[in-house]
């Protein structure tokens, strides 16, 4: 039984050392954000931290690179829209 | 005034520099019916224009000749935005904030002089600051709001003005470097370039920070020197995070300072695309392009001081530019009596985008022999002897 | 010199950096091996936390990794998880400004070996921004480090020898690889030109290639030279691609289009060296045979900036063996420069020469041709971050006077987003040059003084100065 993290309210399993992005891909999730211009879906592209396509909100912090952030049981992961900074929109 | 050329197809005016000042000169001259050729050794907006924040400000100029030019420029930019689209003209207004009672007193004194010249400046009480800027730090002493301050995207402004000038008959030739001048008995007769001679009745030096070198080719002294500045750019943020151009009262005194060492004061504004631009620093280090980590730290610390919420935003990039400044901190605009046929439009320091429109207007007026909309005397190059 | 100064800082713990650190450490230098990743090995020897043996079958030359790792462990301070955001030259040392867990840590060293590596070169095509389209390196990284396959039915395309291990690796893990679509015709090139180049002097390299070919054959994966993925299809993720046959200039042959159903695509067009840090220090660059900007180094891997050595892909894309031997030489050269005894074995110098010749031959067999531009429509996204289209880039260059990538960036925002033009830089440069009628300049994008994003609050705070461990400070 592998560990899980919370992704948008459901449990996603991960192996030790896996990144958030790798675990999501393994679970069949291919995109977890939409772009701020055309609202297009994005997930992993380069997989090595160069392209920033895989931005995701981890434990409330937006725009983390899912391909680099290690998955842990206690940090919830959220999909995000646009800038990821809805909290600043007043 | 431009001397008419005997050969009909030759350009009447050659503008050196495809930055925002050269573009405005070309636009006004072309709209005035002159045949204009613009040359630049690089691409459009390849120099200081491309490193600018795009400020059109009256707020940072105390009463004096530069304020008069700035007031004219605010009107000219409004006209340009109506005539030419696509450069993100935004009359967002400027908010100058004071961290202390003493700084607020200074702001009030400056505003009082500006109001006498017709500038609108409204004092903002500390408890009203958040109505203007919800994310501003809540321990400031107060501020002054200037509704006439505006912003453009400077590279786009230069490119769009040049494109419109082309539609009115101008020729724009990027990647053509001026290597010398052509002379006739009466004075300048054009320029020598890396792509051949360009004869013209008038030569406009809009070479920005490199304006002194162009002047030297024509045999006159115009002391333009570089003053380095860094800008930090954040990740894209929602449009409401920073609403106006916001800067600290200390910015005004920094601009007029003669201290060569690092000076820094917070200047913060959002852009239409989302990233927030953070300035400013001023150093006299020649054309040294090396990144200054201390300058970046100061800019970052000042920005976080005014907008604590920005502490969590990522900085994606930093860039530097070289402001073209003259010893008396005034631009050089108008005909050069020492060299007939030569006109200057350079040395605007950090206000080149803001003053570009009025500069283009003043230069085109001089080229066509009409009086400009402001007294051009303080900017004439004769002041350098 | 303060006690908080290392003799040498090596940036990057891939084959080049590990070799450089090991060589300098062996010579007696106090070495910091600073790396963004948590485990050594770089992009080439990626592996899960449990060790490289878990993915041994996906790797080549694990023996070299083990040997380097053992040497590094004995003599070098390995500092994983540190992303260098900038590097500065100070009075008597270099300052490496790094971010770790949101805090800044500064390392000082008397000399530097920069071994930043490379990433996949990308060229846009309609649909390339759909989820399910991956870089070849991304697909490989997910496989090697996380044992995750990017799809069940995968199309591999682009150009370069790297496509082979990617396809073979996926197949070994049970993926149905629908084909390898190689835009060039390297086999034909090798038959025609092999006599003129010393490819045959590298039997190990040829054996490696033969191994992949055998794997493709074993898994019945079609290998299609002069073919390319010309479009990816799908609404919110990729469900199919169109492939087409190309001529020598990569123009599509009429009537050759074919649709293939798939749930993932892996594409790569060679590699782009990472030059942020050498550029920040002002190291002189040149354009290599593959069109990449690389650092100009001499026979001792010295850059034009005193005491800055550069090794691996940043000096010319050439693969892991090449990177390791350049790292070994750089580490030894830096040690000698710092006053530690070392030497330059003739065997290493010879090996570097042979591997360079092999890499040059490979580049000649896998050029990027102009035909890729013809597949873009006006609204094909070129800059993924800022969603700038091919039409916008072309118009900025042809109508607005943006004749280089910097001015096109200012006019369109192409290259101004999160990735800072790392992905779209080559494509934007190519489209700009074509529209403006000037030569392509791959160096227009090199200046990135902030090499990785840094939180503003981190930048505003005073950084921590790191001191070497196990140093007698009396």
UniProtKB/TrEMBL annotation, chain A:
InterPro entries (UniProt xref): 2Fe-2S-bd_N, 2Fe-2S_ferredoxin-like_sf
GO molecular function: iron-sulfur cluster binding; oxidoreductase activity
Keyword Protease among UniProt keywords: no
Signal peptide: none
Transmembrane spans: none
A Pfam family matched in the record: Fer2_4
Keywords noted in UniProt: Oxidoreductase
Gene3D superfamilies in UniProt: 2Fe-2S iron-sulphur cluster binding domain, sarcosine oxidase, alpha subunit, N-terminal domain
Protein name, entry field: 2Fe-2S iron-sulfur cluster protein
Lineage: Bacteria, Bacillati, Actinomycetota, Actinomycetes, Jiangellales
UniProtKB/TrEMBL annotation, chain B:
GO cellular component, one term: cytoplasm
InterPro entries cross-referenced by the UniProt entry: FAD-dep_OxRdtase (IPR006076), FAD/NAD-bd_sf (IPR036188)
Pfam name, any one: DAO
Residue ranges constituting the FAD dependent oxidoreductase domain according to the UniProt record: 13-365
A GO molecular function held by the record: oxidoreductase activity
Keywords: Membrane, Oxidoreductase, Transmembrane, Transmembrane helix
Top-level taxon of origin: Bacteria
Segments passing through the bilayer: 12-30
Name of the protein in question: Glycine/D-amino acid oxidase-like deaminating enzyme
Lineage: Bacteria, Bacillati, Actinomycetota, Actinomycetes, Jiangellales
Automatic annotation (TrEMBL), chain C:
A GO term, aspect molecular function: oxidoreductase activity
Any matching Pfam family: Fer2_BFD
FAD/NAD(P)-binding domain mapped to chain residues: 6-320
Cited InterPro entries: BFD-like_2Fe2S-bd_dom, BFD-like_2Fe2S-bd_dom_sf, FAD/NAD-bd_sf, FAD/NAD-binding_dom, Metab_Enz_Cyan_OpOx_G3PDH, Opine_Oxase_asu/HCN_bsu
The keyword Oxidoreductase is annotated on this UniProt entry: yes
Domain BFD-like [2Fe-2S]-binding span(s) in chain numbering: 381-429
Domain of life: Bacteria
Alphabetized UniProt keyword annotations: Oxidoreductase
Record flagged with keyword Oxidoreductase: yes
Protein name: NADPH-dependent 2,4-dienoyl-CoA reductase/sulfur reductase-like enzyme
Organism name: Haloactinopolyspora alba
């Amino acid at each position: 039984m592998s560990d899980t993290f919370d992704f948008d309210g459901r449990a996603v399993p991960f192996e030790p050392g896996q990144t958030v992005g790798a675990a999501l891909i393994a679970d069949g999730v291919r995109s977890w954000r939409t772009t701020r211009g055309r609202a297009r879906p994005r997930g992993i592209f380069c997989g090595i931290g160069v392209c920033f396509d895989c931005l995701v909100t981890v434990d409330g912090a937006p725009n983390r690179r899912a391909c680099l952030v290690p998955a842990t049981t206690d940090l919830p992961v959220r999909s995000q829209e646009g800038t990821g900074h809805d909290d600043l929109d007043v | 005034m431009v001397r008419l050329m005997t050969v009909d197809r030759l350009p009447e005016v050659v503008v050196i520099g495809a930055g925002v000042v050269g573009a405005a000169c070309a636009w006004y001259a072309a709209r005035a019916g002159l045949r204009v050729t613009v040359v630049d050794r690089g691409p459009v907006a390849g120099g200081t224009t491309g490193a600018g924040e795009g400020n059109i400000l009256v707020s940072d100029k105390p009463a004096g000749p530069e304020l008069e030019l700035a007031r004219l420029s605010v009107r000219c930019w409004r006209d340009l935005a109506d005539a030419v689209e696509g450069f993100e003209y935004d009359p967002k207004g400027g908010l100058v904030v004071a961290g202390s009672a003493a700084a607020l007193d200074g702001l009030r004194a400056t505003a009082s002089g500006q109001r006498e010249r017709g500038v609108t400046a409204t004092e903002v009480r500390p408890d009203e600051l958040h109505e203007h800027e919800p994310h501003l730090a809540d321990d400031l002493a107060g501020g002054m709001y200037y509704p006439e301050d505006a912003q453009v995207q400077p590279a786009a402004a230069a490119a769009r003005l040049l494109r419109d000038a082309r539609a009115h008959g101008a020729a724009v030739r990027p990647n053509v470097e001026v290597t010398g001048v052509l002379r006739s008995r009466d004075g300048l007769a054009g320029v020598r370039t890396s792509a051949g001679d360009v004869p013209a009745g008038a030569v406009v030096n809009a070479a920005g920070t490199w304006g002194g070198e162009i002047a030297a080719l024509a045999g006159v002294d115009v002391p333009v020197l570089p003053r380095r500045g860094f800008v930090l750019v954040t990740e894209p943020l929602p449009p409401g995070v920073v609403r106006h151009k916001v800067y600290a009262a200390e910015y005004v005194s920094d601009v007029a300072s003669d201290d060569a060492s690092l000076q820094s004061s917070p200047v913060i504004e959002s852009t239409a695309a989302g990233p927030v631009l953070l300035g400013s620093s001023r150093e006299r280090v020649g054309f040294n392009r090396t990144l200054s980590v201390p300058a970046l730290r100061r800019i970052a610390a000042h920005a976080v001081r005014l907008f604590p919420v920005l502490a969590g935003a990522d900085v994606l990039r930093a860039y530097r530019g070289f402001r073209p400044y003259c010893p008396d901190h005034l631009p050089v605009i108008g005909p050069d009596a020492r060299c007939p046929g030569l006109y200057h439009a350079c040395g605007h320091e950090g206000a080149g985008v803001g003053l570009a429109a009025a500069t283009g207007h003043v230069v085109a007026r001089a080229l066509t022999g009409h009086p400009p909309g402001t007294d051009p005397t303080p900017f004439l190059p004769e002041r350098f002897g | 010199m303060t006690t908080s100064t290392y003799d040498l800082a090596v940036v990057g713990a891939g084959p080049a950096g590990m070799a450089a650190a090991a060589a300098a450490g062996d010579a007696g230098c106090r070495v910091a091996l600073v790396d963004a990743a948590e485990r050594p090995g770089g992009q080439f020897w990626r592996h899960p936390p449990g060790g490289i043996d878990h993915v041994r079958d996906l790797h080549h030359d694990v023996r070299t990794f083990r040997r380097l790792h053992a040497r590094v462990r004995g003599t070098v301070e390995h500092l994983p998880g540190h992303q260098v955001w900038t590097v500065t030259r100070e009075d008597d040392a270099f300052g490496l400004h790094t971010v770790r867990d949101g805090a800044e840590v500064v390392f000082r060293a008397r000399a530097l070996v920069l071994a930043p590596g490379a990433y996949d070169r990308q060229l846009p095509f309609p649909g390339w921004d759909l989820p399910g389209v991956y870089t070849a390196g991304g697909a490989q990284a997910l496989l090697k480090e996380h044992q995750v396959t990017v799809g069940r039915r995968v199309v591999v395309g682009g150009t370069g020898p790297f496509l082979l291990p990617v396809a073979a690796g996926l197949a070994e893990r049970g993926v149905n690889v629908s084909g390898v679509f190689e835009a060039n015709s390297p086999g034909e090139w090798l038959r025609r030109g092999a006599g003129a180049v010393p490819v045959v002097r590298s039997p190990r390299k040829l054996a490696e290639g033969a191994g992949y070919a055998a794997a493709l054959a074993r898994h019945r994966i079609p290998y299609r030279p002069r073919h390319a993925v010309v479009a990816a299809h799908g609404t919110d993720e990729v469900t199919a691609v169109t492939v087409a046959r190309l001529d020598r200039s990569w123009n599509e042959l009429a009537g050759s289009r074919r649709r293939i159903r798939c749930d993932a695509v892996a594409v790569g067009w060679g590699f782009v060296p990472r030059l942020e840090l050498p550029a920040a220090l002002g190291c002189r660059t040149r354009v290599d045979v593959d069109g990449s900007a690389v650092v100009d180094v001499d026979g001792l891997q010295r850059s034009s900036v005193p005491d800055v050595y550069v090794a691996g892909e940043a000096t010319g894309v050439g693969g892991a063996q090449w990177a390791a031997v350049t790292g070994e030489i750089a580490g030894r050269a830096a040690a000698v420069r710092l006053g530690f005894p070392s030497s330059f074995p003739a065997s290493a110098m010879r090996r570097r020469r042979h591997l360079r010749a092999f890499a040059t031959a490979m580049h000649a067999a896998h050029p990027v041709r102009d035909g890729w531009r013809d597949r873009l429509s006006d609204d094909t996204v070129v800059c993924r971050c800022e969603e700038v289209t091919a039409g916008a880039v072309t118009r900025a260059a042809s109508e607005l006077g943006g004749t280089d990538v910097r001015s096109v960036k200012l006019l369109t925002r192409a290259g101004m987003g999160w990735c800072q033009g790392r992905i779209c830089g080559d494509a934007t440069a190519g489209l700009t040059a074509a529209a403006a009628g000037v030569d392509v300049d791959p160096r227009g994008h090199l200046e990135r003084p902030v090499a990785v994003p840094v939180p503003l609050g981190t930048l505003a705070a005073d950084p921590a100065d790191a001191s070497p461990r196990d140093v007698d400070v009396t």
